[in-house]
Fold this sequence. Notes:
Number of helices: 4
Bound molecules: ligand MTE, molybdenum atom
Strand content: 25-35%
CATH topology of the domain at 30-58 and 78-195: Sulfite Oxidase, Chain A, domain 2
Distance between the termini: 39 Å
Largest sheet: 6 strands, mixed
Order of helices and strands: EEEEEHEEHEEEEHH
Mean pLDDT: 95
Number of strands: 11
Shape: globular
CATH superfamily of the domain at 30-58 and 78-195: Oxidoreductase, molybdopterin-binding domain
Radius of gyration: 17 Å
CATH architecture of the domain at 30-58 and 78-195: Alpha-Beta Complex
Structural class: alpha+beta
CATH class of the domain at 30-58 and 78-195: Alpha Beta
Amino acid sequence: MSTPLPPGQRLRPDFPRFGLLQFARRFPHELSRCDVRIHGDVEHEVVVPDVFDGLPRVEQVSDFHCVTTWSRQSLRWGGVRFGDFYEKVIVPQARPRPGARFVIIRGQDGARTSLLLDDLLAPGVLLADTLDSQALSVEHGAPLRLVVPGHYGYKSVKHLSRIELCCDDSRFRPSAFRFMDHPRARVALEERGRWVPGWLLRALYRPLVKPTIAYFAKTMDAYRNGKAS
Ligand SMILES: Nc1nc2c(c(=O)[nH]1)N[C@H]1C(S)=C(S)[C@@H](COP(=O)(O)O)O[C@H]1N2
Ligand SMILES: [Mo]
């Protein structure tokens, strides 16, 4: 449910398409299927053709907080809990090695982030395929995205394609500069990035919000008009 705004965040009435500029012109090649590859420190690498198969569907209302300081309240996501997918699909099929508690998540556009397995297993973390009871749009992550409400938006990877379980972080290369990628990025603790304090990143990021939204909207229009490269 909606909670008071976390430190340094400002409310937006809309829900803009957003991300690092390098992903604005990249779109998923596969829009209907939800193939997800599970690999890394596992006994069996597997490709799961349908992450929803046999798992209970849930709907959840949660707030969304971008690290650049904009927030949107009360988004209604539908999908399956990551915890259910982990217990009922990843563990029996892929058999993660003991100690594989660090997870790299990748999207079809090449975006990637990392999360601690414990953070992914928290209640409220979803593999979502609907928003407001409609199939996810390309803007918001079709055909499948991660939703991690307690963490900054960059952990909620859109167009989800791969889940890599790791015993350490040696194979992880962040999408952005390393200082911009906090290993946990908990919103309540203002873990916006590493080494640089949250209040300073607020000030650095805030001027980027408007031009980034405009650029993501423009590239989305070009894609819709069939002009995307
Ligand atoms: N694949 C992918 N996932 C992504 C991004 C992206 O560019 N590509 N941007 C991240 C960032 S910084 C934010 S704030 C949210 C934005 O989600 P939205 O575009 O649905 O608003 O997606 C996150 N997940
Ligand atoms: Mo973001």
